[in-house]
Structure formats: C-alpha cells, structure tokens
Fold each of these.
Amino acid sequence: MTKKSNKKILVVLTVLMMVLCGLPSIAKCSESNGSGAEAKSKPLSREERMKWWHEARFGMFIHWGLYAIPAGQWKGKKIPGIGEWIMDKAHIPIPEYEQLTGQFNPVKFNAEQWVQIAKNAGMKYIVITSKHHDGFCMWDSKVTDYDIIDATPFKRDVLKELSRACRENGLKLCFYHSIMDWHHPDAQGPFYPNYDAQNSNPNFTRYVENYLKPQLKELVENYGPLGVLWFDGEWVKDWTEPMGRDMYNYVLELQPDIIINNRVGKGRKGLEGFSDSKEPVGDFGTPEQRIPAKGLPGVNWETCMTMNDTWGYKSYDDNWKSTQELLRKLADIASKGGNFLLNVGPTAEGLIPEPSVERLAAIGHWLKINGESIYGTTASPLGEIPWGRCTAKPGRLYLHVFDWPTDAKLEVPALNNTVTKAYLLADKEKSPLTFTKEGQNNLVINVPPKVPDKINTVIVLEIKDK
Ligand code: FHN
C-alpha cells in the first residue's frame, strides 16, 4: 500500500472519529478517561493566555517555502511583487510549480542557528510559515504528500527541528498558516492561478474539514505547545466569519492556552484590528506593514513588517530598512501598546540573509542594554512627544529620546506625576540626572550635552504615583 493511500485511510478514519465523537470535540474525545464524567477545567481568559505575549513585545516572522528557490525570478524574468506570491504573479501552473519540490534542498538550514539569531536579537517568539498560500507544507503532514518530507530531496522536518531548538532556548514557537490554498483541489476557485473550471470539482467545506483541520491538529499536537496560531489568507470568499469562529474554538480545544490572530475570521478591518461586529473572532489585530498612529486602543495588536520589501526571499530586493528605522519602530510600537513581528525571508539554501542578520544583531545589542524599556511595558500615558516616545511600567516611565536636545535640556510635556529620580538606562550606576519643574506640568531634565545613543537613548523616570 502506498503512503498516499495510507493517508487517505487516515483521513477517512479521522473524519469518522469526528462524526462519532461530535464536532468539534476531537481533543475531548482523545482525552476521555472512560468514566464518562470528564472534568472540564475553567477555560483560561484571553488575558491569561496573552500574558507572555504582552511581556514579549518582539518576535521573528519567517516566510520560508518553495518560493525561496525562484527568489523573485521566473524563466529569466524579474517578477514584480512580493516573493512568496510568485506562483500567482507569474501565473505558474500547479504542475510546473510542483517541480520546485525536487530542487528544495536547503542543506545550510540549521534550526539552532536561526533560533540563536532570534534570541540574540532579543526576540521572544518565532512565527514561521507552516503553509503559505502556495499550499506547500513545511512539515511531515500525514494528509498530503505535498510536504517537505515526501516531496523534497531534503527530507528533514524543519518545523520539528525548530520546535526542539525553540524549546531548548526558551522561545515560543508559533505557526503562520494560510487558509487560502492555491494547490489543494478542493480549495480551488476562479481566484486561484490557473483555475481549471472544466476539470475541478472544488468543495471548500471538504477542504476545511478533511484537510485544514487535520493539519492544524497535527501542528498543535506534534509540534506544540505552540505560542500562536497566526492565520492568513482569510479573504477568500468561501471562508466565512462562522467558519472562523468554529476554527477558533477548534484550535482552542486542541490547546487551551494558545493565542489566535484576527485573521482566523473576517475581522481584518480598519487599521487591521477588528471589524465592528459585536464579538469579532480572534485574540489580536494584525496591522501589516504599518504602525497605527494612535495604536489600537482597547485591542491587542501586533504590527508585522518586512525588513526590505518582500516577505519571502527575493534575491534582488535590497531596499533594507536601517537599524535606526527598525529600532525606532520597535520603540514606537511599544509606546502604543503593540507587539512587533519582524520578518526574515531565508534563502533556498536555508540561510537568513546577511543584511537581516546584521540588523538583528544590532537590535539585540541595544535591547541587551535597554530591554527593560520595551519588555513588559505598556503604552505611553503621555500625549505626543516631539523628541521621541515613551513607554511605561508601574512606578516608571521610559523616555525614548530619538532627537537629543542641542541645549542639553529635555523637556517632558504634560507630566502630572511627582518624579523622584531620573537617570540614563544605559548607566549601570544609575547616576541621577537633575531636573526642574517648569510651569504647571512640564519637567525639564538636564541631560549630558553629547548624545549617548544616536538611535535611541532611554531615560528612566521614577515616579511616585501611578
Ligand atoms: O498575502 C500575504 C503575504 O504574502 C504575507 O504573508 C503577509 C504577512 O502578513 N500576509 C498576506 C497579506 O495580508
């Protein structure tokens, strides 16, 4: 019997189990102690589940898949747009795109090294594409052969290796998973590249029940516990808000403390927080490539962003953001109460591009000194500040100074609190800076004339009251 037919039998059995046990209770079913009286513990609240995530503030996004091989070029032509969309942008027929599997052999991939790069950058979690829109699976999935083990000469389960490395290094592993699938026959539709209306008989519900859900179960149960399930590709017309809600509940049953983004439903509205519906599904909003000017008050959110102009590797995209830009974005996001998910697009050999590595190392260096002003902080209680940003913790304000005052006097507007001490966060001795109150609420701090850190100097204010 072939592996494919084994997989088919497995799918049929799984579906049968689901029907017998009553959807969506796969986890309940396998957890039964046989007594019939299953004690159900109280579900964790959203904020209990999200505690580590708020503390973390900074994570690594990894877009990696077959698209790293063409790296933005197809048949000698540079294809405009983001690298991981090449199948769509270059109108590559499925059988032709599938040929890439034979070339996928990233022998330089080293999970430990990737995790070290993230850890040294001060990142606390990693979100990697388990499956992007092209449908190729980066783990050994039992419900398809279109995966890294069955279809490539590499035959290594990169998600398994990353899961181990993350666990050993104390980082949370999270998966990005695309709902839209350009490869699965049941998920086909006129939107998809090379849609063949004559020969296909798509059935999206069947795709969700027999493919998407079993795959997520594999990911949560065999690679978990996971930090986040980060859905995407939810805009396809076949995907509905009720399907999103069902999926949210399904995943939470599999792992009760998991966090799930807003793209599980159709909630990506406005600034990519949530729709106006009364109870939008998902735990956090996902502004993409932008930082909402005033954050997203009352909503958990995470900005995801590329370092150049692509998520998946493109060999000729050299439009890198500078370390200064990235570090200031991190402070800006934290000052508005959000998380920063910064992307890398590894090469087909399995290497994180050097410009990304360099920037991450520099960010890590800054965070080693100034991390206290980012991790576990909350949004700025102050209004707009002309020279930089502010983050807060109980009893402390962290002033992130981007533009150092030429007269060595830093004015902090609209500060109502009693300040007991001010010092540079980078100063191990915590030598106090002197300050005076000016007018009603303005505080003027006497700072060293020479800028200590051109990118972002952090001044700590210890304050008496909240
Ligand atoms: O289409 C994708 C894109 O390729 C990339 O994965 C980003 C990351 O947030 N999300 C989608 C567009 O919203």
Amino acid sequence: MNKVTVSTPGKLMLFGEHAVVYGHPCIVTAVDQRIRLAAEVLDSPDFILEAGDVEVTNYTKQISELGQGDVPKGAQFVEIALKNIYEKFDLGEGLRITTASEFSSKFGFGSSSAITVCVVKALSELFDLKLDNKEIFDSAYKTVLDIQGKGSGFDVAAGIYGGCLYFVTGGKVIEPLIIKELPLIVGYSGVKADTVTLMNQVKAKASKYPEFIDVLYTEVSKLVEKAKSALLVNDLISFGELMNFNQGLLESMGVSIAKLSAMIYGARDEGAYGAKLSGAGGGDCMIAIAPKDKIAAVQQGITRSGGQVIEVQTNVEGVRIEK
Ligand code: MEV
C-alpha cells in the first residue's frame, strides 16, 4: 500500500475536566465532525504537508530532519507524531500528508489530538505496523505530551475508540459506555481558549489552595461515577442535574467565564435538565441536555445569550480508514 486516507472524530468532554489530569476519571463522547488525513509514500526522502485549514501549505523538509528547526504551530502535531513513529519503527520513506477538517480548530473539539491519531493510524496502515487501539493511544498520547507537556489523553482516546468513554488519566482505564444516543445541545462561546493556560491556572490554584482543590477533584470523581450510571440507564434528567453540579465545581476552580455562564443559564432558563462548560473552560463550548420538546427553546436561550449553536451527533465511530 502506498496511499491511505483516514478520519478521526472530534470530542466533547461530558464530565470530569481538569480533575482527570490528576488521576481522576472523566466521561467523553466522540462527535461527528471529523478530521481527514491522506498520506502517500513518496520516492524522494521528503516530508510534505498540506494543511490549508491551519494555514500550512507546501511545508517541506527532509525526513531525516523531522522535529528539527522551526516547526510552524499548524505542523507540530503531524510532524512530531511522524517523528515518533519513524524513530520507533526505523522508517525512512518520504511522505506527503494532506489534512482537512470538518470543524474549526477554535471550537475545542480536539483538532490537535484528532490529527495526531490520524497520523499514527495512517502510518500503521501504510507500513503494516499492525498497531492495536492501545498502541495507537500510547503513541499519539506521547506526541501530545511531547508538545503540550501535560494533558490526560481523554481526547486521544475519544478519537481512537469513538462512542462514549469512561476514561482515567493516561489511559489507565478506557471503558466504552454502551448507550443508544445522547442528544446533546452544543453552544460555542466565540472565545478561543488555550487548554494549557487553563490547566496551568488550575494548577496554580491547587498549589495555593490544595485543601479546596483536592475536595473539588474528589467531588468531581463522585459526580463522574453517578453520571456514568445515569448515562447507562438513559436517565437524562439525572445526567443533566449532575451536569449542573459539575458546572458549580468548575466555577469554583475558576475556569468558567461570564459568556459561558450566560449561555449555561440561557439553556437552563429554557428548560434544560442541565448545562455546563465542556473542556478546559475560559471559552470554547458549553453543552446542555434537555427534554425533546424543549430543545428548540434551549437552543434559542443559548443564541440569545450570544452563543452559536453547533449541530453535532454524539457517540460516533472512532478513527477509521476511508475508502
Ligand atoms: C481540556 O479539554 C480538558 C482538560 O481536562 C485537559 C485534559 O484532560 O487533557 C482540562
């Protein structure tokens, strides 16, 4: 094989953000907005990247120089993922990679981790490395840590396994939650958040007030367990109520912002069972769960509060080879 196209879904954190970085569990779902990556083996020993949606065009370097010199932000995850796999499996072939995303990298759907998963899966296929899902996880997670320094890896797992997952830091537990559907309402705040900055803010707070932040993490863990049980029996009322608790704890960690909170109240005021921010906070998206007959009103509540409703399907298939 000398050509392959793969795609990986984006993700939305349902419960447990921040606490999951410190050994606690979370629940995440894969969403139907996907990143596509085409990889083609070249005769020359070059790495060529076309990633128009992150403003990288005709980026070229020698395979032997992967990871060296200045790497533009938009090329980082692809290049370091390649370098890690090439080194591990002693590969040398040139490669052209083209990527395209169905969603804006602003939304916080996890474009960096999804692209990393695409690279590892594509190389596994192209060079017959026969990596299983856990090996793909370990390799993609290493790349994310090489670049970001920290992170739980929940987004990497969602991209690989798809569906809804109960996940513990670093992939210690990756448990698919078998559910029929999860009709989530998603609102984008219009504010771009930087996950690493937010993680550092929470870490700084934890050094100053360890006794409070530890309690918050422990309570988040309990909420995750309850939310998992509610989800498995399709008890969306409890699932929503637990979201509200989780939002309160995230407010205490200091990661919500006025805009997100306004959208969350906008959703609750229109009859949502519950609403919370999703991900690092500081911007990006909020999510809500509502009875079917209230969905339109809840969407309007979010729009009225200045948010942009994004239509997504949840619980979708993980990384796959495209025909
Ligand atoms: C960011 O989407 C969620 C965090 O928990 C970071 C992570 O788990 O890697 C803040």
